[in-house]
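Researcher: Please predict.
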Amino acid sequence: MSADMRYQMLRVPYQRHLSVDERLAEAAARPVIYPETLLYDHGKPYKSDVVKRACRKWKIDLQDARKLKPTDKPQVERLFGTIREQLSMHIAGYKGFNVAHRGKHVEEQARWTLDEITEFFAEYVIAVYQNQHHRGLHLHGFPDLNVSPNEAYAMALGSAGYVDCPRDPNLYYELLPIADDGRAINSYGVELNYLIYNEDVLYQFRRAKSPYGNGRWPIRYDPRNLLHAYFHNSRDDTWYTLRWTKALSDLQPFTDITLREARRLVELRDGDPKDKDFQEQIAKALWDLQNRTDAPEMWTKTDRKRHTRDRHRGEAQAQDEARSTPAVPATVPPPRPVPEVVEPTVPSLHAVPDLPGEDDDFDPFAVQPAEVWNPHTSQEG
């Protein structure tokens, strides 16, 4: 996003705010709101444990809309229609929400990545939507004057001021999903998704019951990066990173989708989770998936979709983790052993020395040919 649009929504002297808090530079183009109630439909993303824990932490009420009742949230439905009419239908490759609204030969038009679509939408919100005057926004004392969202936000910021409420730096780890029913810390570590994670900090909690109700420890993980798990040490109030014990040194972060594909490939080769070398087989399958030598044009549609989705999820996970307080890093495993080069047992070729007294100047024409035996001549004699 260009710098001239980044601060368009702030109609107040933002230089003064930037001089007070530099963190406002990244949030200057985003309105900061504190909702009291979250009204959602029956979509799965809105019912996830992450949303519930976040609302519980920030004391936000959750309220679900009734099925087949769009009037329960008319503002949201109207906003979706506005976005569709002003932005979505003008992007190349738009298929529409109905077959009757699709263009001709849509599959032949240009298609965009999720990052590019996100950039288009951000520019549209800042440069177009936030600058449109709405009948629902009024200036106090002037009921006939309609203002835009940018002007309403600037008016509220000028009258109420800006209160910096930084979020908890450990919020990323606290909102991560917890392993079902917790995990017991054994002598070898903790097991999660058929993978074993371990770190030195777990030694003091071996076979110990947690202070929680079921006696198990809440091991958190990010489905977008299963190379690590996270453990909160309540004794020093510190988050620790747990590394997969069988991970190769050159193995890149992988998502739950890639892990599921690696398990499928191992099971096709008669792999069993009860085998001792099952994790080594998973690590080898993951390494093969990440270091494919065939051309991407030869991949199936499922492979291309999985690879693209994994890449976007991995980038989002890295950004979320970078905005939080770094956890205590895990120990890096030693590099993969390089096989020793075995010297050949067969001696190398060498020149044969000359025999003593042998003349190197050999003239083949000086050799006397042997006599040819003629049977007719011998019979006459």
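Model: Residues 9-13 have pLDDT under 50 and may be disordered.
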